[in-house]
Task: structure prediction
Amino acid sequence: MTKLTINGKPHDIDLPADTPLLWVLRDELGLTGTKFGCGMALCGACTVEIDGAVVRACVTPISTLAGKHIVTIEAMSGDAIGKAMQAAWIELGVPQCGYCQSGQIMSATALLKKNPKPTDADIDAAMAGNICRCGTYTRIRAAIKQVAGEQGASP
Amino acid sequence: MSANVICRNPSRREFLQGASALGGLVLAVGYSGVLRAVEPQKKYGADAMEHGWVDNPLVFVAIQPDGTVSILCHRSEMGQGVRTGLPMIVADELEADWTRVRVIQAPGDELRYGNQDTDGSRSTRHFFMPMRRCGAAARQMLESAAAARWQVPVTDVRAQNGEILHVPTGRRLGFGALAKEAAALPLPAPDTIKLKSPAQFRYIGTGKLKLIDAADIVTGKAQYGMDTRLPGMLYAVIARPPVMGGKLASFDATLAQKVPGVIKIVTIDSTPGAPKSHPLGGVAVIARNTWAAMQGRKALKVIWEDGPHKSYDSVEYRATLEASARKPGLVVRNDGDFDAAAAGAAKRITAEYYLPHLAHASMEPPAASARIVNGKCEVWGCFQGPQLARDDVAERLKMKVEDVTVNVTLLGGAFGRKSMPDFGTEAALLSQAMDGKPVKVVWTREDDLHHDYYHTVSFEHLEAGVDAAGLPVAWLHRTVAPPIGSTFNSDAKQEGNGELGMGCINVPFAIPNVRIENPAAVAHTRIGWFRSVSNIPHAFAVQSFVGELAAAAGRDGKDYLLELIGPARQISPQKLSDSWNHGESPELYPVDTGRLRVVVDLAAKQAKWGRPLPKGSGLGIAAHYSFVTYVAVVVEVAVSTAGELSIPSVDIAVDCGATVNPDRVRSQMQGACVMGISAALSGAITFAEGRAQQDNFHQYTVLRMPAAPREIRVHIVPGDFGMPMGGVGEPGVPPVLPALCNAIFAAVGKRIRELPIGDQLKA
Result:
């Protein structure tokens, strides 16, 4: 039995210790906002936040997560920057198919938490792990910059 | 049946039985089965598609007593914005209040909804008018109901943003209060339906509405095929034959069965003959969750019988295609006399281009769920063509089609892959094997890359005889590529009309002597539709060759391209030996070189064509007509001395006629630039011993943010709602690849004739 704290709620998970967090979220807990795209930490669709750090859930065994605080896209509306990011995503019409966008928003939110005024190079570095096959990259960049501008304007 | 809605809930299956009692309904159903029976001549556009179109408001619109308007979307959402676009058209003509509109996704049922095969960049151009009529008819029924309630002339009432207004008195009633009475009225006869004038549109073309699914997407609530959850659901992954036409020889599941969470191992029979849309067969591992199923599959020991394609090897195959392209092939267009004109030309120029297989690699790999209850099968999945999914499941499970329901989730990208519902049939077969329990089939990324319906591989041979000014008087194009037809008929070796008509035979250049040939090519893997399909190799070859001819003539690339296109004129596709014309009428949709010129000029002007650039930088241009839409692209590249390429900006100009949702046209063009650049830079699936060699995104690399263009500016040529519309989802892609390579040539003098570019700039 592994004890996990996900979006503030405790869960007891009765699965083998090597089970990646992704499948616990999706198949056991029904938190399907965290997506499966590659299973090898190559595409970023499964990005979650663990103790403030960006983590790919598809390669993170639950055995490593006891006592840690896991946040998924489903809780991002409760996060000031996450909520602003979601609003910018809607306003700028960022999503196309939308499948990768949970992961994109998780990475973008984590970036602004660490670096409120990212340069283009900072954005490239933070977002390079998140693939969007529909090609929304220019709008993702614009949305991040818009939120960074807003955050700067009203500290 | 609920009395308080304007029509029965479209998801209720008793509707069809009830329909015959509704008298007037049949008049409004315009699907092609009916039309063909009375009119034998050739049909085009939506009329020519299987099951045509339906414009009946009783099928597409339901109004609740509280005024909520439910509009049904019968086409699949894969990122193109169709769930916003089509309902927006209905809502506008209906005078609905968009903030009270709900969009409901239709299950697969083409007899009821018209064609649902979401491909060919067709949804808006084929359903713009039916959806307008649908909204307008519903509006007129509400207006008639209000006039009857108030006992006033119907000419005195008018629908306005979710209400009916009595103009002389200012009295108002909400749609919800009138829905019941309106539903009891006969449908307006087709010739009495009054459409808005475009000046009256409040949503169409205005760009005011946000995506209907955006809020769900950004909060993680949006449901894709991968996300379906059903009570008691089991999860499956499948080991499939790695070579097309292969099958299971033997397997040992002893270890797999010991993996915690694994419940059952099931075999799926391969289908003999052409692959079609059928499952590949193999060994399925069914488990408590996806991870356990994956671990179980890893533990399987499987021996495959590879079959006739076991030696498919991309290096050898390339040589085969090359040899074919250097010999005469089936002549598919022949204007004038190429041989004589080329012999008499001042100079002959030849170039050859090679493009590898591509995988779609949508971010959501294929996924579907199924369960069987009381002999009826229900399927959920990310299908571009839910009717085909339904037909396939019924056939394979030996059920009646009406006993199969196929629900369409959001599609996490598709790009043509998900028009083939093999994964849906897999889910249904596994549910059947589990006594009807719900089973979800998950394709891993490796499954997706190993078992795609790949974009074809092609070799393109071009020759031109040019005059003293460097302009071609003779043009020869030999295109060689295993055709999509081979997926349905193993003997097919020639490109079909639909492939040749994608920018190969229908080049609209002002050249008197043109010969197009198509030597045969045998397919050794499943070939399918990849966003813009054969336009990719054809446009790459043609527009790169134009760049080469311009360079040979010492001319500016844009000026030369315009001169080759020639004066503005409308050319019948038949004159270009194109009998297909994207399925559209040759009269309504001639090839309009004036429109092609306009997009070339627009892209060039917006990119400031001709501006001075630093050493190692360059601009490249290309233009292409596909899906009855005109697109031109200018790419700016910078190549470092180390051969590192960056793309500061792209300007893409599009003339697709009038636009319903201009922001989605922009987003599709932006996406097309990224997808085209991705394919050009690194896209390649290669085969050895019959097997695809790329496993995941570390080997099949796709464009990421740092390498993507920093800016993509989209320029839309204003359109007229009175004129035929063009496609949007696909036509942006084809000119991107040659514009990029023409830019590279301008920057560093290196001509790319083989894709992907890979390390070619680093040599």
In short: Chain A touches chain B through 62 residues (CB under 8 Å). The first strand of chain A starts at residue 2 and ends at 6. Chain A has a mean pLDDT of 96.
